[in-house]
Amino acid sequence: MPISLREEPTISVQLLNMTLQITQEEGLDNAALCQAAGLDLRLLADWEARVPFSAQNRLWRAILDASGNEQFGLLVGERFQPQAASTVAYVMMHAPTLGKAMEKCGQYQALLCDATHLRYHPQEATFTLEFLVPWVPETRYTIDKMVALFTMVMRQMTCQDIAPVQVGFQFPAPADVSGYHRILPRTEFLFDCDINYIKFKPEDLETPVRGANVDLYRIFEQHAQTLLAKHQQTHSLTYLVNAELMKLLRAEAPTVEMVAHNLGMSVRSLQLKLQQENTSFQAILNETRKELAQLYLRDRHLSKADIAYLLGFSEVSVFSRTFKKWTGSTPSQYQAELLPS
Q1: What span, in angstroms and rounded, lies between the C-alpha atoms of 292 and 251?
Q2: How many Cα neighbours within 13 Å face the side chain of 7?
Q3: I need a surface site. Which of 168, 243, 265, 340 has the fewest CB within 10 A?
Q4: Which of 185, 88, 183, 100 is nearest to 145 (CA)?
């Protein structure tokens, strides 16, 4: 029986308004952009509201159609004002060091967007960015925004010209990469990487944050912890399991033991709670794989072997048989059906 997959990950209206402020400055018609993206202007007036993450992708598409500027994501990140991120920004601005500030950004990022996972790897002085939603072409502009945003925020917090040593993107190199080199002329950019990442010199992340106040840091972090706990309570277990599967799916299928461990639960408890939500671990895994498979098959740059690997299938033949069981079509037939007649 098909399951009703978890509610879609969301993004804070604060972040969308940050983008819309830049589009207005660039002379674009925000009312028309919001209409094209299916966004209610009245909802955007509520700074505590959240909208589905897919709305941001639709907004990027509308912006690109209206502006023709493929570097608009970088532009938004460059003009970022820390106060636009509210509590998370204040925690960062009073953290003792740059590395700690970025670590806290990852810890509390769900307050701004729960469709991404920012992880700090201190030994490598690297931050990785994973998406807990299927990849679409517009995802690139969110990544562009975040790379430029982190760079600007780090410089604002330290009053130093800090730049990453290397930045890696999962997407192919765009035709025009000049925008990246304009913002970060000393940084090496790599494309078609396994994961999105930003790598720094270790000593740069030890740089003190200018004007940081330890008492305010403690107060803002306590507030962020309270908000995060409240936010997490709004999600079903189905949602949390799906988010873990999005992170773990690659090369082999995640097991219920792995997911239960990551969620801090016993396998038995996980299974019982999913049963209360009228689903099961296997049903969520199958539906997640199916959704991702249909999305990946729309990308002609991915081979069947690539897709099988990304979905955790041991062989292409196993993926093909399973996909036909799900949809009634083979992967090749599905792709053929997507072609315009």
Answers
A1: 14
A2: 12
A3: 340
A4: 183
Helix axes 267-276, 237-248, angle to 10 degrees: 120
Report whether 28 contacts 11 (CB < 8 A).
Answer: no
Token pair in block for residue 37: 């993206």
> Domain segments of the chain: what residues?
70-226, 237-338
Other beta carbons within 10 angstroms of residue 286's beta carbon come to 16
**Cβ atoms 154, 100 nearer than 8 A:** no
- Can you read off the two tokens belonging to residue 164? 């990453």
Summarize pLDDT for 60-94 with one digit per residue, the tens: 999 999 999 999 999 999 998 766 557 898 999 99
Name the β-bridge partners of 121.
Answer: 126
Sign of CA dihedral 73, 76, 77, 83: negative
Tens of pLDDT along 312-325?
888 999 999 999 99
CA gap 325, 323 in Å, rounded: 5
Number of neighbouring beta carbons within 10 Å of residue 138: 18
Angle at 51 between CA 89 and CA 260, to 5 degrees: 80
Which CA distances in Å does 223 have to 219, 228, 258?
A: 6, 9, 31
Is the pLDDT at 161 greater than 60, yes or no?
A: yes
**What are the tokens at 71?**
């570097």
Q: Give me the residues paired with residue 8 across strands.
A: none
Query: What is the token pair recorded at 130?
Result: 């994973």
Q: Are 228 and 111 in contact (CB under 8 A)?
A: yes
Answer yes or no: is pLDDT of 199 > 90. Answer: yes
Instruction: Assess contact for 256 and 270: CB atoms under 8 A.
Output: yes
CB-based contacts of 123: which residues, under 8 Å, 6+ apart? none
Partnered with residue 197 across adjacent β-strands are 128, 168
- Domain 237-338, CATH class in plain words: mainly alpha
